[in-house]
Fold this protein.
Amino acid sequence: FFPTLIIEFLLLFAFGLSPKKYWWAVIAVNLATQLLLTSVIACNPGIMYSGFIFLFVMLELLITVIEAVAYVIIMKKERLWKRIVYAVTANIASAIIGELLVTIIAKTHI
Protein backbone atom coordinates (compact mmCIF):
# COMPACT_ATOMS: atom_id res chain seq x y z
CA PHE A 1 0.00 0.00 0.00
CA PHE A 2 2.72 2.50 0.96
CA PRO A 3 4.92 1.89 -2.11
CA THR A 4 1.81 2.45 -4.25
CA LEU A 5 1.07 5.74 -2.48
CA ILE A 6 4.66 6.93 -2.91
CA ILE A 7 4.54 6.14 -6.63
CA GLU A 8 1.16 7.80 -7.09
CA PHE A 9 2.18 10.94 -5.18
CA LEU A 10 5.35 11.23 -7.30
CA LEU A 11 3.23 10.87 -10.42
CA LEU A 12 0.89 13.62 -9.20
CA PHE A 13 3.92 15.93 -9.40
CA ALA A 14 4.95 14.51 -12.78
CA PHE A 15 1.48 15.17 -14.20
CA GLY A 16 1.33 18.66 -12.73
CA LEU A 17 -1.49 17.71 -10.36
CA SER A 18 -1.58 19.19 -6.87
CA PRO A 19 -0.69 16.71 -4.11
CA LYS A 20 -2.09 19.23 -1.58
CA LYS A 21 -5.40 19.23 -3.41
CA TYR A 22 -5.69 15.50 -4.14
CA TRP A 23 -3.87 13.72 -1.30
CA TRP A 24 -7.12 12.55 0.25
CA ALA A 25 -8.40 11.22 -3.09
CA VAL A 26 -5.24 9.22 -3.79
CA ILE A 27 -5.31 7.68 -0.31
CA ALA A 28 -9.06 6.90 -0.35
CA VAL A 29 -9.13 5.49 -3.88
CA ASN A 30 -6.03 3.37 -3.32
CA LEU A 31 -7.25 2.10 0.05
CA ALA A 32 -10.50 0.96 -1.56
CA THR A 33 -8.82 -0.70 -4.54
CA GLN A 34 -6.11 -2.33 -2.41
CA LEU A 35 -8.83 -3.78 -0.19
CA LEU A 36 -10.57 -5.12 -3.30
CA LEU A 37 -7.35 -6.67 -4.63
CA THR A 38 -6.39 -8.21 -1.28
CA SER A 39 -9.91 -9.51 -0.60
CA VAL A 40 -10.27 -11.23 -3.96
CA ILE A 41 -6.86 -12.86 -3.70
CA ALA A 42 -7.44 -13.88 -0.05
CA CYS A 43 -10.83 -15.39 -0.88
CA ASN A 44 -9.24 -17.54 -3.60
CA PRO A 45 -6.32 -19.31 -1.88
CA GLY A 46 -6.12 -21.99 -4.58
CA ILE A 47 -5.40 -19.33 -7.15
CA MET A 48 -1.88 -18.96 -5.78
CA TYR A 49 -1.00 -22.26 -7.47
CA SER A 50 -2.79 -21.88 -10.77
CA GLY A 51 -4.10 -18.90 -12.61
CA PHE A 52 -2.61 -16.27 -10.31
CA ILE A 53 -1.09 -14.21 -13.11
CA PHE A 54 -4.36 -14.20 -15.06
CA LEU A 55 -6.37 -13.18 -11.97
CA PHE A 56 -3.81 -10.54 -11.01
CA VAL A 57 -3.80 -8.99 -14.50
CA MET A 58 -7.62 -8.98 -14.66
CA LEU A 59 -7.84 -7.39 -11.21
CA GLU A 60 -5.26 -4.75 -12.12
CA LEU A 61 -7.25 -3.90 -15.27
CA LEU A 62 -10.44 -3.61 -13.22
CA ILE A 63 -8.68 -1.48 -10.61
CA THR A 64 -7.26 0.78 -13.33
CA VAL A 65 -10.78 1.37 -14.68
CA ILE A 66 -12.18 1.97 -11.17
CA GLU A 67 -9.40 4.44 -10.35
CA ALA A 68 -9.72 6.23 -13.70
CA VAL A 69 -13.46 6.67 -13.16
CA ALA A 70 -12.86 7.86 -9.58
CA TYR A 71 -10.26 10.41 -10.68
CA VAL A 72 -12.47 11.60 -13.55
CA ILE A 73 -15.19 12.30 -10.98
CA ILE A 74 -12.95 13.72 -8.22
CA MET A 75 -10.45 15.79 -10.23
CA LYS A 76 -13.10 17.70 -12.18
CA LYS A 77 -10.99 20.81 -12.71
CA GLU A 78 -8.22 18.88 -14.48
CA ARG A 79 -8.23 17.94 -18.15
CA LEU A 80 -10.00 14.66 -18.86
CA TRP A 81 -7.05 13.08 -20.67
CA LYS A 82 -4.74 13.98 -17.76
CA ARG A 83 -7.00 12.27 -15.21
CA ILE A 84 -7.27 9.10 -17.27
CA VAL A 85 -3.60 8.91 -18.26
CA TYR A 86 -2.59 9.58 -14.65
CA ALA A 87 -4.71 6.65 -13.41
CA VAL A 88 -3.39 4.29 -16.09
CA THR A 89 0.25 5.34 -15.62
CA ALA A 90 0.03 5.16 -11.83
CA ASN A 91 -1.46 1.67 -11.92
CA ILE A 92 1.02 0.30 -14.43
CA ALA A 93 3.94 1.79 -12.49
CA SER A 94 2.72 0.56 -9.11
CA ALA A 95 1.93 -2.94 -10.45
CA ILE A 96 5.37 -3.31 -12.02
CA ILE A 97 7.28 -1.88 -9.06
CA GLY A 98 5.12 -3.86 -6.62
CA GLU A 99 5.86 -7.11 -8.44
CA LEU A 100 9.57 -6.27 -8.51
CA LEU A 101 9.52 -5.66 -4.75
CA VAL A 102 7.67 -8.94 -4.13
CA THR A 103 10.19 -10.81 -6.31
CA ILE A 104 13.16 -9.22 -4.51
CA ILE A 105 11.69 -9.95 -1.08
CA ALA A 106 10.82 -13.53 -2.06
CA LYS A 107 14.34 -14.19 -3.39
CA THR A 108 15.99 -12.84 -0.25
CA HIS A 109 13.82 -14.99 2.03
CA ILE A 110 14.20 -18.34 0.27
